[in-house]
What we know:
Blueprint: H1 15-43, H2 51-71, H3 80-103, H4 108-121, H5 125-136, H6 140-147, H7 154-175, H8 180-192, H9 194-213, H10 225-234, H11 238-244, H12 249-257, H13 279-284, H14 291-315
Helix pairs in contact: 1-2, 1-3, 4-5, 4-7, 4-9, 5-7, 6-7, 8-9, 10-14
This protein binds zinc ion.
Amino acid sequence: MKTLTTPSSELVYNSEDFKQFMPSNFSSMLERSSALIRRILQDMGQWADNTAHEKLLLRLSFDLLERFIQYCPSQLPGRPPLLLDGFISEYFGKPQEQEIGRSTASNPILHRFLDGLLKRAVLSRDALVCLFYHFYGMKPVEVGFLLGLEEGQTQRIYKNFARWRQAGWHQSTKEAGLTSEDLHALTDAHTSNPSRFHEEVGQQLDSLLSFYRKSDPPYYPCLSINKWQDMFSEGYGFDYRMWHLPLCLSCMRSVRDLGDSFLLNPQIQLNLQIFPHSLKDDESASPCTTIHDRRTERRRQASHTKVRLAHSSMAC
Ligand SMILES: [Zn+2]
C-alpha cells in the first residue's frame, strides 16, 4: 500500500491518483482540516475552549473534508493538503466576514487594527514592546523602568520604538488592510468620545488578548498581585514582565494597584495610540538622568506596599 510520509509534498496528478491518495491519508487530512478551522476561529475571536466548540469543530472538519473530496479532482494536478488549506480558507472567507461584522459591528476597523498589532506582537519584539505605547501611551523610558532595565539598557527600548516607527507599524497596518482614512477615523472616534471608545477597546482586547497570550514562546500565566509584588521588589522576571504584561490588561492593573511602586508614571490607564510614538516625543523625553534615584525611591515605597499587602492578606 502506498503510504505518504510527507503528504504536503506529494503531487497528485489526476482523479484516479486522488482515489488512491485519500484512504491512506484520510486521518491526516482530517487532522489538518480540524487544526486549520480551529486556528481560523481563534484568529477571528469566534473560539472558546468548551465542549460545544469542540463538537462544532468535529462536525465542520468532517463536513468540509467530505466536500473537499468532491471538489479536489477538478483542481488536479496539485498537492491535496495545500488545496485543502485553500478550500477551507475560502469557505471561511465570505461567511466569516459577516461574522466579524456582527461581532464587532460597532467598530470593525478597531478590531482589525488591534488584531493587526497583536499578530505582529507575537512575532516581533519591537511590536511587543511598543504595545505598552499603543495601549497605555507609555514612553520608552517608562517601559524600560517597568521592565527593570538599567539606564544604559533602556537604549534597547529606544531602538525597538525606532524600528517600529520606521517599519513595523507600517507593515502591521498594511497587513491588517487599513487605509489612512481608516486610521484617521479611529483617531476621530477616540477624540469625539474617549470613554466610549476605550470601553470598546477594552472589550475587544479582552477577547483578543486571551488568544494571543497563548502564543507566547513559553506561556507565562497570570500572577497574583503578591507574586507581581515579589517579582518587582526582588528585581527578577524581566522576560516574564516583557512577555506577559503587554498582553494582559488585568495584570497591568495589578501592577498599577501595587501603589505605583513600579511605574515611572503611575497614572496608567488604557489610552489607545493609533500612530507610532513620534521622534519628537523621543527627543523631549530623553532618558531621565534621575532614573536611578527614582528607582531607589520606588523600591523604598515598594517595601512599604509589601508590608501593607502582608497585613491585608493576614486580615482576610
Ligand atoms: Zn495576566
